[in-house]
Backbone:
DNA sequence: GTCTATATAAAGATAGAC
DNA sequence: GTCTATCTTTATATAGAC
């Protein structure tokens, strides 16, 4: 698979379009022609950049994950303490949903997991694992209790937070509501770090 | 739209197949031919029972929701107290995911909301609204605090619980894990009713 | 890097016989 | 209620010219 770092400007536009389409309609919900129309080129030109849809989406998911992880690094550098970091983490989901109720790329692909080409499924799985590790670390070092948090307790709370945020996007859409992740963070933050 | 209550045994088998296929692959992830193969008939026979895919899935979602609400009534009759009722509620999600990691019908349809025929979207929206109302009621009457729960606080907690459960199915799939909703209920229950 | 033209398969759906 | 045959559209993908 082509790595997203060695990609031309034209191919980048294709990835941008694919990302938005996946976030709105899922893997099975868009076509090469949809991308072509958005980018302003023809269908076969897409194949010039990405031979198959599986490769295209795998590359896009990889780029999405990389950017997300970069954002996590940024949060650790610019925010101090558990609450601020979890709040900044939640804001990433919030900002995504605020754009026409877009879902997390790996969230919507996760629901389609059984149907996904293996390379795409691998990206999704890695994305969640790394998010959980990051959250468990932040929760573990940021909590305010007297005893240090047990490793598996930190992991449980990380799982809860991630699921609540992903689920809030899913449910928010089903409710046809503009309020997504934000509806779920209030109160939860205190619980996670208590 | 045909109501599911006036449906023949043959049509019922079609709905059963459609339900499983939606839970595994989503609205855009299966075809009339997939149903036909499962039921053991041919494609046009499906159209005899349900003229369009939109009608078929709308009827299926309606049946799913009705059964789910019946289960909620059952929980209120057979379980007493907030903790037992929330536990029984979570078990409904658990049982679904335990079947080949199937998702909640309205959960997976919710992620596809932007792409859904309006009648199907209506069913999904109604499903979530009614679930939130039921949960808010159980949480409100079941909590152990000294002061009665404020209405909007009960609704916030209901939203958190629903999103956590739906999200756990989504994330569990992305992780290729057999552990779904169960990973998220522990600890949360105490928080909801505190 | 983009195009026209085309191959091939699958989708939702209809007509009409049994 | 189910079938064969068929229509129409759309999908992913390829060949080869510019």
Residues:
């Amino acid at each position: 698979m082509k790595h997203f770092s060695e990609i031309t400007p034209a191919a980048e536009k294709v990835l941008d379009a694919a990302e938005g389409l996946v976030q709105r309609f899922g893997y099975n919900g868009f076509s090469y022609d949809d991308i072509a129309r958005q980018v302003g080129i023809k269908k076969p030109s897409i194949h010039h950049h990405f031979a198959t849809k599986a490769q295209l989406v795998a590359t896009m998911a990889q780029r999405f994950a990389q950017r997300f992880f970069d954002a996590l690094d940024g949060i650790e550098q610019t925010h101090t303490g558990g609450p601020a970091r979890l709040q900044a983490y939640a804001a990433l989901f919030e900002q995504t949903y605020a754009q026409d109720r877009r879902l997390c790329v790996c969230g919507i692909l996760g629901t389609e997991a059984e149907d996904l080409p293996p390379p795409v499924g691998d990206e999704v799985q890695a994305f969640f694992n790394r998010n959980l590790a990051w959250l468990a670390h932040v929760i573990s070092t940021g909590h305010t209790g007297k005893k240090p948090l047990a490793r598996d307790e930190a992991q449980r709370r990380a799982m809860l937070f991630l699921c609540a945020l992903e689920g809030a996007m899913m449910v928010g859409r089903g409710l046809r509501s503009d309020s997504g992740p934000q509806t779920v963070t209030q109160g939860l933050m205190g619980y996670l770090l208590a």
Remarks:
- The mean pLDDT of chain A is 96.
- Chain A touches chain B through 46 residues (CB under 8 Å).
- Residues 31-33, 43-44, 47, 51-53 of chain A lie near DNA strand D (CB under 10 Å from a C1').
